[in-house]
Amino acid sequence: MGASIRTLSGPDIALPDDVVEQLRGALHGQLSMPASPGSDEARTIWNAMIERRPALVARCVDAQDVAVAVRFARENSLLTSVRGGGHSIAGNAVCDDAFMIDLSPMRAVQVDPARRVARVEGGATLGEFDRAAQEHGLATPLGINSTTGVAGLTLGGGFGWLSRRLGLSSDNLLAADVVTASGERLRASKDENADLFWGLRGGGGNFGIVTTFEFQLHRVGPTVLAGLIIHPLDDAKEVLRFYRTFAPETPEELACWFVMRKAPPLPFLPVEWHGREILVLAACYSGDVADGERILKPLRQFGHPIADVIGPQPFAAWQTILDPLLTPGMRNYWKSHDFLELSDGLIDVFTDFARRLPDPNTEIAFAQLGGAIGRLTNADSAYARREAQYLVNVHGRWADAAGDEACIAWSRDLFTAAAPYSTGSVYVNFLTGDEESRVRAAYGANYDRLVALKNRFDPTNLFRVNQNIRPTAFTLPTPSVAEQRPVI
Known about the structure:
This protein is of the alpha+beta class. It is 25% helix and 23% strand. The protein contains 14 helices and 21 strands. It is globular, with a radius of gyration of 22 Å. Residues 475-488 have low confidence and may be disordered.
C-alpha cells in the first residue's frame, strides 16, 4: 500500500508500504490516497480550473499532526502543498502526485469576549469566525466571501469591509502557533520570534504552517448599515466621477466598492434588467446607523438608480451577501492592479470592457482601501502596499471549459489596458498561477528581508507551492503552478 510520489527535485519515488503505514500510525487524523474514501473531497477546491490529484493527503486534526506531516515531508524530500480553506485562486492547496497537508478538519474558533481575543484554527472559514465573534458583538477585519479560509487570507494580508476602520486581517493578528519547515512548533508574536511574526503578516505560507491564529477583536454591529445601489451601465461614467469625489472624503467606518457586471436575477431588480450590464455600488457603514444614513445620503440621491437596497442588517448576514455569486465549482481566472486614484482614463477602460463581458458571471470588482490600512508603514509587516487607495479584481468567472479562451483573454486584455493607471504593485492573494514574475512586485522593498527570513526558516524551500519567496541557496527547479495544469 505504498505510494508513488513526487520529490522536491522532480522525479517520483516509491514510498514503501511500511513508511506510509508509519505515517498513518503517527497521525491522529486520517491519511488518504487517491482511492481512499473522501479523497475527492480533499482535493476539490474553490476554483474548478484546478483539477489535480495528490498522491497522499494527511488530514490533520491538531498541531501535532501538522508537525508529524511536515517532518515526514522533509525527511522524504516530498513536493508538498498545504490546504487551509482551499480558496486560493492559484490553486496552491493541491498538486499532482504530491503530498498535501490538509488543515480543513481544524476549524475550531474560540472567542474570549472579556479580552476581545479569538483563537482560530488553520482550517476555519470566514463564516465560522464571523458567526462565533458576532455572538458577542465582536469582529475583526476579514474578507467578503464566507467560504474563504482565514489562514490564506490573513497570511497574504487580508482586507474587507472593516479594513478602512480597523486595518488588515494581518494587522489584527496578535500571535500565531507555527510549525516550521524543520517540524518545530513555535509561537510568533511581537514578543516571541518577532521576525517570524513580521513575515507571517503578509508573507504568505512561505515560512511555516500556522495551526492557530490569535486575533484582536473589536466592537462591530451586530447591526450595520449596508447594501447595494444599482445603476445602468450607461450612467457609469457620471456615477463613478461622483463616487471618486465622494468616497475619499467619507469616514473610515464606511467602505464603498463598485462592481460592473451583467445583472443576476435578483428579486429586487425589475425583470427587464436581468442579464443587462449594470454598475453596482456596495456600501457598508459599521458605525452608528443614523450617522451612516446621513453620510450615505448624497450617494443614494445621485443619479437615477434602478434599485437602492441599503438598510440596517446584521453584520454576519452582510458578510455572506456575495456568497451566491462566489459559489465553489466555477472556473475562475483573476488579474489585479493597485491604484492611487480613479482617473478618467481608468473609468473609460472599465466601462469599455464592461460592455463586452465574455460571460454573465464575469465582473470587474473595484475595492476601496486606505484609512487604517495606511496608518502602519510598509516596513511594519511583510504586507507592502499600504499606499494603495483602491484595487481592481478583474474577475473572470464562468462555468464551462469551452469559455476558457475567451474569458482569460478578456481578463488579460483588461489588465493590460488598466496597467498605465496602476501603481505597479499587486495584492499577493489575487495572483494567479501564471504570475510568478509579479511576486517581487507584491512585496516591493520588503522582498529582500523576506528572502533573509526564508533563508532562516525554510532554506530548502519545502514550502514552495505558494506565491514563492525563494531562499538564496535554493538551486533546485521550482515547479510553478502552471506546470500543474493544462496550458491555456
